[in-house]
C-alpha cells in the first residue's frame, strides 16, 4: 500500500519585546537564575497581569504579514495545570478567540532526487498570544530540582497551521519560511539555540488517496530544522510500519532524541490534562482597531511576497527565482545590492542562488558573513558580460575572490585568465588546428556535425582556454565553409 | 475620642489637640484590652504602627497634613503590606511576609495614615461569619456569642468595637455590607473597577472589590477619596476623573434634603427569607427617607433568586484557578514530608487550606472541567448578564435601590457552620450587586432586641447605579443627620 503523511505545525515564536507579556520584568536571555523574576513572574499573592502592548503589535504585524483576519476582539484565557515552573498554576493564553485568524504562507519546497522544486500555499489556522513558563533546572543542587523563573511570562506567539503538509521536506520548508518571515518583520530574533523559535509537529499517516486523517502523534519542542527532518522521517516510517504490522496508532505526545534519531512517547492522550480553560477575569478583552492595524502597517518593511512580485515585474525573474531570493531579508538585500552595483538581474540571481549559496551552505555561513560583497560580485559579473573572462574562468576568479586573494581584475591578470578576443590571434590558432587535424576537417565536410565541436575544443585547448568561444565558433564556421 | 468621626479626629490632629502617636497608642491600648475577647486582628506590629504615627506627626508639623494623615486604620489581612505578615486568614500563608504594597495600602501610606494592624477574615475571604479563618473566629462586639458576619469580620468587629478609626474591607458577594449590617456601621462596596485590586489577594477576580468600613457615610467618603482612582497595574481599574466623595455632604441642611429622590424597593428583597423584625426596621428606615422627601417606587429584580446559584458557580470557578499558585513551591505552606512532586502538591494543599476553601476549589474545578463548562460556567455567565440587566431596567425608574443588607441579625457562633447552604443564603441581598458590578452600601438603621436582652444591629442596604457612590454617600449621610444609629457603640465587651 502507498502511504501519505499528513503534517501540521504549531510554532512558538518568542517575541522581541523589552519586557514580559504581562509585567515589566526584562526578557534578556542568559541572566542569573530568578534575577528577572518580578512579583508578577513569581506569582506572589495579589499580583495582576497587565498586557504588553508591544507584544500585541508584534502579533498584529504577523497577522498583516500573512494577510490574515485580525478580529476586532480577542480574549485571554487561563490554561490551568500544575507544574513547578508554572508559578500561577495557570498559563495565560488565548483559546476560543485568538488575536490572529486565518492566513496563508507560501513556501518553496526545494528540488529533491524525485521531484522538481515547487511552491505551495500553507494555510495558517490561527496565531495567539501567550506567556512562556519558567524552567526546571536539574542537577544544579545535589539531589534537588531548581526553578528558574526568568523565562516565566516571556511573550510568545503560537502559530498554528492546517494539516496541509505532505512530506518532511514541506514541513521543513514551511518552518524555514516562517523562521525567516518572523525575523524579516522584526518580531523574533530567530535564535533556535536559545529557544526563540520552537516547533511542535503533528504527524499522521493514511493510505494514499483516502480522505480521513489518521491518528496523530505530536513531536514536541524541535529546535533545529535538521532534527525536524529526522524526527518527521523517523516518525512517519514508525507509524507506517506499526500500521502495516497490524498495529494501531494511539494519540500521544512524543519527544525526539537527537542521539538515537528516534521518537518516543512521553504521555498518552488518556494522561492528558483537562486544562479547564476560561476567560481570564484579570484581563479585559483585547480590542484591535483599524487604526491599530494602520499604525503597525506603517512600520512594516516591504514584505517578501511584495518584493517577490517586484522582482518578477522589474527584473523579469521567474516566480521560483524571486521566491528563492526572498527566502530571507539578508539574501534579498544582497541580491538587490548586486543589481544596484550594475549586475544584470538574471545573471545576478543565478550567481546568488548558485555559486554564492553553495559556498555559504558548504561553510555553514550566513550571507551576512559572506567574504564576497555584493559590489565585488557585481564587478565579477561585469567581467563576464563584457567578455573579459569566460564563464569557466569566472568560476576560478570567484573562488579566488572568496578566498580573499584580491579584487577581480587583479586576479584575472595574476591568473592570466583574460579572454583572447583579437580576431587575428584567433584566426592564427584556427589555422594551426585545421592544419594539424585534416581528418576531422574531412569528417565535417562529409556532414558529421560532431566534428565541428571537436575542432572548437581543439582551438580552445590550443588557446589554453583563453579564446573567446563565440569568436572561435564564428571564425571556424567561416573558414570551413570557405 | 474613640467614638469621634474621621473629620473630628483630623481636626484634632491638625489643631495639635492630640498627636498621631497618642491616638495610635490609645487604639493599641484598647486593642490590647479588647482584642483577646473579639479576635479582630491577626497581626499587630506596634513598633511599625507607631513609627508611621511619628512620621505622620512630622508631616502635620510641617503643614503637609491631608485629611487622613495620622489616623489609625485597620487593614483587612487580604491586602499585601510591605514587611507585614499577610495571611488572608489561611494557614497556607501563615508565615508569608509580603514584600510589596497593595495599591490600597500605598494610597493610605501616601497620605500618611497609620496602619494599626491586619484584621481577621474568613479564609481567602470565603465565608459569611468569619468562622473559616485559620486564626479563629471573630466575635461580634454587640454579643460575643454571635458572629460578626464575613468575610471582612475582623475589620467589622474592629470598627464596631472602636478598635480603629476606620478600616478597609473587600466585598466579593457581600463581605463588606453583610458584616456592616451585623455589626452596625457603614460599609461601602464601590463599583467594580473603582478601587484597584493590585496587591489584594484574589478570591474571585471579576467580583472582588475593596471598600471602606467606617462609622458613617461621611467617614466612608473620606476613606474612598483615598482608595479610589485609576491604577495601571490593574487592567480592570477604570480610567475616569477622580471625584471628591465628601462634596455636597455638608450642604444638606434643608428640611427635605432628599426631595425628588426616587427610591426603588425590589419586591424580591421583602419576600420569604427575610426575618420579620429585620423587615420592620427596614420599613421604619424607609419611612424616615420618605420624611426626608424621597419618593418610593416599587421595582422588581426578577432574576435575584438566581444570584446565589450563579455566584456559587462563577466565584468558585475563578477561585479554583486563583488559588492554584498556593502549591508549596515558592512560598507559603509546604508539607514537611512527601514522596514526590504530586505528593508534595497534595499534602501541602490538603494541610494548608481549610474545609470551605477546599469545597469551593472542588466546585470550581468541577464546573470548569471538560463536559461541564457549558452547562455551568457558560450558563452562569449568561444569567449574570440577565441579573445585571434587571438592575439596568430598575434604574430607569429609580435613583437608588433600598432593602435589607442581610436577611437576619447576627447569628450564633456555630449555628450555620454545618450547613453551607444556609450560610450562603446570608448573601441573598448582596450577591446580585457584585454580579452586576454595581456599588452597594449598608448603613445602621436600628436594632432588634434578643430574648437575652442584647441589641443587635440591622443594616439598610443602598444600591446605586455605576459610579454613583457620591449620590449614595449623600443619601446615607442625609439619614445619618437625622438618626443616631451610626453613633451607637456596643458596651461591656
Overview of this protein structure:
The complex is a heterodimer of chains A (about 475) and B (about 500). Chain A contains 15 helices and 15 strands. Chain A has about 475 residues and is of the alpha+beta class. Chain A folds into three domains: about 5-290, no CATH class; about 300-415, no CATH class; about 425-480, Arc Repressor Mutant, subunit A, CATH 1.10.10.410. In chain A, the strands form four sheets. Chain A has an eight-stranded mixed sheet. A three-stranded antiparallel sheet of chain A has the order 4-3-14, with no helix packed on it. In chain A, helix 2 runs antiparallel to helix 3, helix 9 runs antiparallel to helix 10 (about 390-400) and helix 14 (about 450-460) packs across helix 15 (about 470-480). The model of chain A has no long low-confidence stretch (mean pLDDT about 90). Chain B has about 500 residues and is of the alpha/beta class. Chain B is about 35% helix and about 15% strand. Chain B has an eleven-stranded mixed sheet with strand order 1-3-2-4-6-5-10-11-9-7-8, with helices on both faces. In chain B, helix 9 packs across helix 11. Chain B is globular, with a radius of gyration of 21 Å. At the A-B interface, loops of A face helix 9 of B.
How would you briefly describe this protein structure?
With 482 residues, chain A is of the alpha+beta class. Chain A has helices spanning 53-65, 168-184, 225-244, 290-298, 304-315, 319-325, 329-340, 345-362, 374-385, 391-402, 408-415, 423-436, 438-445, 450-462, 469-481, and strands at 3-14, 73-74, 76-80, 90-94, 103-109, 118-131, 135-141, 144-148, 155-161, 197-207, 217-222, 252-257, 262-268, 278-279, 286-287. Chain A has three domains: 3-292, no CATH class; 302-415, no CATH class; 423-481, Orthogonal Bundle (Arc Repressor Mutant, subunit A), CATH 1.10.10.
